[in-house]
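Let's do one together. I've listed all components of the complex below, 619 residues spread over two lines.
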Amino acid sequence: MRVERGAAPELLNRIFRVSQFLWLLVSLLSPAVALAAEPPGRTFELTIPQSGAPVKPRVLRVEKDDSVLLRVTSDAAGEIHLHGYRLEMKVTPGTQAEMQFKAHATGRYRIEWHPAGEAAKKGDHHGPPLATLEVRPK
Amino acid sequence: MRGDLLRFVAAILLSCLPLPAWPHAFGERYELPAPLGYFVAGAAAAVALSFVVAAVFMRGMPREHPAKHFVVPLGPVLQPLRAVCRVISVVLLCMVVVAGLFGTRNPEMNLAPILVWIVWWVGLSFVVACCGNIWPALDPWRAVFEWADEAARRLGFANGISLNLAYPAWIGAWTSVFLLLLFVWIEVIYPQAAAPAHVAWMALVWSAITLTGMVCFGGDTWRRNADVFAIYFSMLARFAPIDIGPDGRSIVLRPPGRGLITAGAVPSGMVGFVIAMLSTVMFDGLLGTQAMALTQVALADWMTLHPLAGGYSVGAAGIITMWLFFLLAYMLACRATARLVRDRTAGAIARLFVLTLVPIAIAYNVAHYFHYLLVQGQLIIPLLSDPLGRRWDLFGTAMYYPDIGILDARFIWYLAITCIVAGHVISIWLAHRLALREFRARGTAVAASVPLTVLMVLYTVISLLIIADPLVQYSAARATS
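Okay, and this is what the predicted structure of the assembly comes out as:
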């Protein structure tokens, strides 16, 4: 009885010590794990204004090597262009289009909206950009 | 009435804006504005260093030493080299016209806009400022004119093809000032500046103008007064450490910037020209700022109220306003100097010191265009394999696309701030050397340098403000939300 009575606190004590050790291990390792893991993702929602409506310029700020996700919704069909990175995406009305990429180059890049009918004039002329992507160095 | 006036002022302010959101003639610029801390550090360094320059170099007379030039004789090498360069330059001009008129309409894949806007206008100015003036050997219009002139002389016309009309002296080099402002308007405001066909037509129109000018007034007179490119490159080249010897058979090595203080007073038109070199690069930088974009949106509804705002003529007003502002600041500094020195007019002071501003123009150029040159300049790599857009692949590089991550933003920030501060310090130093040489008495020279030093610190702050675009820093939180 005495042995068993003493064993219970000792067992608890041991569990407590082991968990303490584990906690220390995790807390030491977690920054390393975080560093090794994928860079933090940044998600931005963009809504295409009705044609003719003024564009309110947005600046999307991310850090170099961030993983960026653009979600675009529109009432009209068209294309989204991210200049510099040379990424393009078709957008159909009613559905959400997604563009994902790694921001590998620093700088300021325009995100342009081209309505479907305008495709012929592409590259010749641009209105104010829908948004600007700013990739800052770390 | 008052509302109308306000609207008119707003329209004028808007005239500084890039209406068609095309940030630069060719390709885009991706630079980030420098953080506010860089701006503060740069401005502080400019002020501190100008005091150091004042303290160290304003002690007394510099040692009178005759221009110690290191002459490297090259014998007969230069002449044939020049002849080869001339043939190449004329061939390149023809290729620009042909590629522009008959090549692909995509500016990024056409030789004409890339060769003109990046390789020649930006790239060659860097080479000329850092090494020496190779433009006279590469000037295709000069080559064509001189070939024709020589042919005419051989055929028995003693005066060649030049009519040698009297160039109106009262206009002087102001023709080139007008042409520089016009060229920059095409570069930064005119939305079709990158379109290959437009580049080709611009080359043809300029060929007609400059050849007519040389025939009417003679090659030398035209190049000294009106040939904007000959003057532009020769101004930059005065900073360069290499010069061609007077005999044409040797090169001269000199300390950088020496060529700027040995010229004496320049014609009054050159004052306007050097100031335009500064103000136009600043204007281009201003167009790229986010502060400008925010202002544009904030005033967008005002714009529709004024008919003027619809045209490109208002962009011209912006360029001229900026030039007048820089010119006014410079003339005020010269006037202050003239008051302190007493025996010279403000105009004479202005014509004497204006060349010492050239290092600032070079610094602005490097600060604004280095990133652009290295990113958009890569477009020449695929073109080397397929210069005429005929789907050739001569060197296997036809499919290359520019690496936009070639330079980190932080490197560009350091480079830009270092260039701007260094450019102004070199200018202050050159101006002071010139003042010591001209005014002899130490007190007079110091007094003469003070207004110019104040002006240059002001220029530094303006240029750093444009590069740091501090409005963005203040409005960052609002913009991201």
